[in-house]
From TrEMBL:
Residues 1-43 are annotated as: Disordered. InterPro entries: PPIase_dom_sf (IPR046357), PPIase_PpiC (IPR000297), PrsA_foldase (IPR050245), Trigger_fact/SurA_dom_sf (IPR027304). Its EC number is 5.2.1.8. Keywords: Isomerase, Rotamase. This is peptidylprolyl isomerase. It catalyses: [protein]-peptidylproline (omega=180) = [protein]-peptidylproline (omega=0). It comes from the Bacteria. Residues 148-249 form the PpiC domain. GO terms for molecular function: peptidyl-prolyl cis-trans isomerase activity. Belongs to the PpiC/parvulin rotamase family.
Amino acid sequence: MGASKPRLRELPITVIDSGKPAAQEASEHQHDHADDGPRTLGQPAPAFLFVGDVAISEAEIAREMQFHRAMTPEKSRADAARALVVRELLRCEVARLGLQAAVQAQAGEPEEEACIRALLEREVDNRVPSEDDCRRYFEQNPERFHAPDRIRVRHILLGAAADDVTGRFNAREQAEKLVAELKAQPHLFADFALRHSDCPSKEAGGDLGWLERGQTVPEFDRQVFRLREGLAAFPVESRWGYHVVCVDALESGERLAFDQVHQRISDYLELQVRQRELQQYLHGLQERFEVRGLDAIEAEAA
């Protein structure tokens, strides 16, 4: 028996994650600046990555890396290399099918982007999920479809700049003293807010009203939604300083009806289906145009 054919690697499709048209995503990172990237003292940049007979140089990868931030340069290089491979696979298929002459670019649309758009419109099905598909997903994932949780909060802000070490130490110390006093005399919260708070809400006794997740700065939001009802036993830190916080009420979001989320589910499922279709299409292109060198680049990032 002959050796089994190696399994093709899945190439990430950033089109879906970015929300941009596939053609735009595939071509927008091209650059005409020949002097960008590593200096080579007049020599051509080396190339270790190939799609078919097309070489993708280290200079091209270096330019692409600015769009792929990562924890290490090796990971950024691997992400950039995969993105360039996807683009080159699509370009090669456009050339093989001779689409350039038949494609009419839209206003302001680069020719290559127009060709890739036409290619994907022709080769990749754009299937819209049925209402039954949407309803099935709704019933199988009830925890995803709730109105936002809400919390009613009062606070006293002891303000201090993020880079003021002494000021922040003093703010925390004062906040801890206020917490201790309010445990014994909770009825003084509004009075303390008026006297000590650096937030305009002090005029309303520190009342911030009903808050949903995402309505305040992330570090404050993350902490207050973990609190129970009543006075928090410790100050809450944020970029603005330290907060003495009292939670007056908590409300869990009610489950939404199917009609309220039907369109959201349909959009989500359509994107998922299209991503699978694009992935399968790229697998086919990898069989047609051999990709060489990507394994080594990814191994360095592992």
